[in-house]
Amino acid sequence: MKRTRFFFLCLLISILSYGTAFSAVTVIPDQSIANQFTRHTVTGITTMLPQLPDVTGYPGASYLTIGDIDGDGVKEIICTSGVGLDGDAYTSGDGAVAIFKRNGTGLDNWTQAVINQTFAFANETVLRDMDNDGDMDIMVMDNFILGWYLCGSGGIYWLENLGGNILQPSNWVKHTIYIEPADSGSCPCSPIGKGTCNSKVTSYHRARFVDLDGDGDEDFVTTKNHMWNWQWRYDTLPYLWMEWFRKESDGSFSGPYQIGNGGGFLFDMADIDGDGDLDIVAPQFFIYKAGFARFPAGDPRGDSLIWYENPGQVALAANPNLAWNRYVIDNEWTSPNTIGKANEAIFADIDNDGALEIVVTNHNHQQYSSYSGSPLRYWPAGVYYFEIPANPKTLYPNQWTPISIDVSDPNLDPNDHDAVLADVYGVDRDFNDYNGQGSPGMVRAQDINGDGFPDLLVPGDGKGKLYYYESSGSTSSELKFKRAVLYGDVGCMPGEAKFDDIDGDGDIDVVAAIYDTRAVKDLNLPTTSASIFIFEKHAPCNNIPAALETITAEDGSTWERVNLPGFGSKYNVSVVAMCPFQGSLYALTRNDQTGFELWKTSCDGWTRVTVPEFTQNDFYGWLKPGFLSQPIDRKFNLKQNQWGDMIEFKGKLYVAIASGYQGGQMYGSIGLEIWSFDGEYWLPVVSKSKSVVAAGKGTLTALSSCANNDGTRTATLSDSTKAWTANQWAGGVLEVEGTFSDGTKGLRLFNIVSNTATVLTVQENEKADVDEYTICTEHKIACDPGRPAYNVPAIATGAKYRIWKGTTASGFGEMWNKSIVDFEILNNELYATIGLNYEDGGRVWKTSDGVNWTPSSAYSFGRFHGYDPNGNPTGFCLLPGLESRNGSPVSSSVTKLIKSS
């Protein structure tokens, strides 16, 4: 079996309603609402998505509690790990509890301290003063939902705070409130577990504190599931209970006292019947037999959602074991909109009418079973809510109707993986493990945008996405939400997420645990990387910043200046492209120091966008310093992104930047770059970083035929360690690290003409339309009149090199494709025009999927001065006195595309 079969991180959605009857809910995907959050890392990955090597973080990160433990006014985060720090679900007794303490005022610097790792499978925690000594202790609910696989004992514990350094394990003393006793029965453990199991293999997930017997002390309500009974004796014994523990005068707890059969999962408490005390709403996940077969109609073990009526303090003080009346809310045989395997239920005023509703998430899987005689699946998966009727004790099922908030396609083909990935709650952690994985997980409801309607937070659990639902209010007949993904990575298994003002600035942020942030998610190996993120919410943009300057144009229109000159930098000399995308306006600059910068604004000012290997990379090579005076001489090249463009195509923002300087010389250009952004991730589309492979990297071991006027235009560069196939690099570009005479580092670029097993034949290509000698020593490149000459560095044996080749490489594999001037969409295809190619000419390229590009035209549209590149007469454009232009392209740049009828 796969380890992940056992991890029901039950992320459930509970919606609380007030009495207004809405017949429908509309959810609109809108990724732009995620712009109001900035992600910070508490522990784990800091990249947008996992990358190798894996970052350990806090393996097994699952359940979260947030509060000020040490009383210093700054909140800490408590997180449990059921599988322990080795990430292995089959290791017994190493479940962990960790505290994360913030360092300084920012949200990116935290100290991680594991204070205990002796639990069977640590679940939710409660932060409260358990011993009345004035400091905060930690209550821990223990054992996994399928605890019989490890023979762990269900238990409830608390960690006593001794008042010292909260980050030291010695400051915390473990005490037992209750541990499930063994009885005489036994069953075999899983193949991985040892020995035999018995009735001790229960699981506790949650506790709610309330004074049930009226003695002034807070007791607590909990629920457990009995995996031995469910797995082996489900036909004869109950296996789910609601219980409570009474606090005694000496501070200890007695119990458990049985409330009733049923529940077992993430419950909540509120006054359902209006009599002034707190009742229980309890979801049931195991509504089927261990053989994945339905219970018969009328069997209470098949109820998806139930509630228990509190008998009152007087009755419970007289008889703690008094059974609470049990009522059915949803059952798969009778429900008009069955929810299936319920996971969590919470109360919230979801429709802002002053009365609570019940918000519920299920935990279903799209795959059919293979155990029972007929195909069975519990589907769809999603989030629902129930209005609480005036008399909740009668008329079942007529008055309880689940209203779908956001659910999967009920007709989803479980074997169509693309459709599963595209489905809102299609399980992508394990496409086929219907018995162990499920989606969604837990749910939280809180009004964080101030409109009076609760917003929702739903981790997908088996769906690798963390969803934020922003309420858009209501009409007379429907509730409205916008949905955005705060974090998404296939198979990442988001754990608990919470709303909390973690930084104390008045805005409600999101804190989330992501169970699996490995770059490669092998479900048969321990999960050795997990992360905790904070999504910091920014104040809503109620007022656009005042204009910095206002002018009136000749036609009477008014214009406002909205940015500082150059966005605060004198080197941002122009904006070459602007594009709206997902609620933000993006601006691409020409920067004569760094080449380009990318900026964006949603409404509250401009921020610079930084993307490793893109905005933080140098695409312009290195030329010898001192060939021009300041400010242009910045040690590097004349870096001018004088042409570039941006466009939205098929739901992504495409950004193209130029590499190079105006004129018939290279000036260190490596060719244009294109990157895409889907609202979450930046990815290279056309980039040298995308095409370089291990076989194309190494160190030069020999050079020859690379002197000026040496009788051959090409040179040969060798790497004796290689075993290339003949001409596998022909047509590619070679980049070599060089050195100037003053010791400054530089880069050289060459066209690769051919290769043998160990030798590259290369051609210098610094000047357009000139058949140059390939020179390995430092030398000067004379340029067009009015443009500065420059030196290129020397290369020698021992120099590092790399090769890129193909249309996914910079410049579509041609370094003279210096820039993209214009993007345009026609017939669902994206077209791009080439600029500043004085060697071959301008060209148009196109793509239908945004990934694979092909030429749409010939270079220079097939027109060349006097003679084509092969020396054949063209019959046109031969200008008297300019015979040196023979063979040169007529069109070096394509400056604009216009759609026409």
Descriptive account of the structure:
- The protein is mostly beta strands.
- It has three domains: 3-38 and 215-537, Methylamine Dehydrogenase, Chain H, CATH 2.130.10; 572-687 and 812-885; 694-805, Elongation Factor Tu (Ef-tu), domain 3, CATH 2.40.30.
- It is 2% helix and 36% strand.
- The protein is built from four helices and 54 strands.
- A seven-stranded antiparallel sheet has the order 42-50-45-46-47-44-43.
- β38 (645-649) and β39 form a beta hairpin.
- Mean pLDDT is 87; it is low at 1-19 and 628-637.
Topology of helices and strands:
Elements: E1 24-29, E2 37-43, E3 61-67, E4 76-81, E5 95-102, E6 110-119, E7 122-128, E8 137-142, E9 155-161, E10 172-179, E11 187-188, E12 196-197, E13 202-210, E14 219-226, H1 227-232, E15 240-247, E16 253-261, E17 268-270, E18 279-283, E19 303-309, H2 313-318, E20 325-331, E21 342-348, E22 357-362, E23 382-387, E24 403-407, H3 417-422, E25 444-446, E26 455-459, E27 465-474, E28 478-488, E29 494-500, E30 509-514, E31 531-537, E32 549-552, E33 558-561, E34 572-581, E35 584-591, E36 598-601, E37 606-609, E38 645-649, E39 652-657, E40 673-677, E41 682-686, H4 688-691, E42 697-699, E43 702-704, E44 714-718, E45 733-739, E46 745-755, E47 759-764, E48 779-781, E49 790-792, E50 800-804, E51 819-826, E52 829-835, E53 844-847, E54 853-855
Parallel strand pairs: 1-28
Antiparallel strand pairs: 2-31, 3-4, 4-5, 5-6, 7-8, 8-9, 9-10, 11-12, 13-14, 14-15, 15-16, 17-18, 18-19, 19-20, 21-22, 22-23, 23-24, 25-26, 26-27, 27-28, 29-30, 30-31, 32-33, 34-35, 35-36, 36-37, 38-39, 39-40, 40-41, 42-50, 43-44, 44-47, 45-46, 45-50, 46-47, 48-49, 51-52, 52-53, 53-54
